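hey can u check if this looks right to u? its 327 residues, i copy pasted from the old doc so theres a chance i mangled smth
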Amino acid sequence: MHLKQLQYTLEVAKCKSFSKAAKKLYVSQPSLSTSISSFEEELGLTLFLRTTSGVVLTQEGEQVLAQIEEVLTSVDRLAAMGKQGFVKYNTTLAAIPSACNGMVINLLGEVAQSNPEITLNILELRPQKVLQSLINGVTDIAIGSYTEETKKYIFKETQKNNLELEPLFEDYLYVFLERNHPLAKKASVSLKELAGERQAIFNDFLLLESAECTAEEEKNLSECYSFSDRSSIKQAVAAGLAYAVLPHQMVLDDIYTTSGLIKALPINTDQVKVYNYVAYRKSNYMPKQEQVILEYIRTLAAEQKERLDKLPRPVVSNITETTVLRY
């Protein structure tokens, strides 16, 4: 029995897939399968059931996993006592575009400076896909967001998949306009004032919405510019081709807003609050390196909240609009 076999078993259980676990562990799938099979043979137990959709733990496997988590926790404590502190460790973080706009860059800097033994890989995903990457075992930690509209789904998925969700801070959606736009000089803007203008949106939104919409809504969507990344959306706005609806935190550490090429205005009707969170798997064992990353995220999120609190708050209006708010 070897330590790597325990780590391999834990990773396969997290990823629910041998192929995904092999990629994260930087080993070949045949090598991983052989190691797990050898471990099962040594124990005289079947730990995983192989299915067409992946693998699931057997009842015996769940009991063995609980013991593995305890052993690896002790190993982490021993490693922390040594001169090296931590062994080399790879982890993957899924993060929404607004977090990648600044907070994640600061996170990478903190990790590189204080914990060079940790290799942190970033996977930038839209809110609809962040949590799913954690559920599928593609990522270890996820920074995501939800609105009142998507809150029920997010909480249902976290409970269903045994995930822990920690709130970080609240934000609002703002309208981003080119600096010479006629509305850019206003203190706030309503969606009605933007009627008839093109909006720059993420293309995954276009795919999601076009599947279930009326003919009129489909026509409006077809008139939007769709992009796969935040940088292209901001370039389109800066060029005066479209407006965008994005979280307010995207003004922080942003070259387009700090240079004055783009102005972000609060929406004075139909305000949408965005709740930012960090999620991870509930477990008796969390690698020390992931604990370190979580602490950095909590600290950086508190700083982000403090910076947002210093910015002007949205102006509240009693007017309600029926315009569809796309983000």
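The first strand starts at residue 48 and ends at 51.
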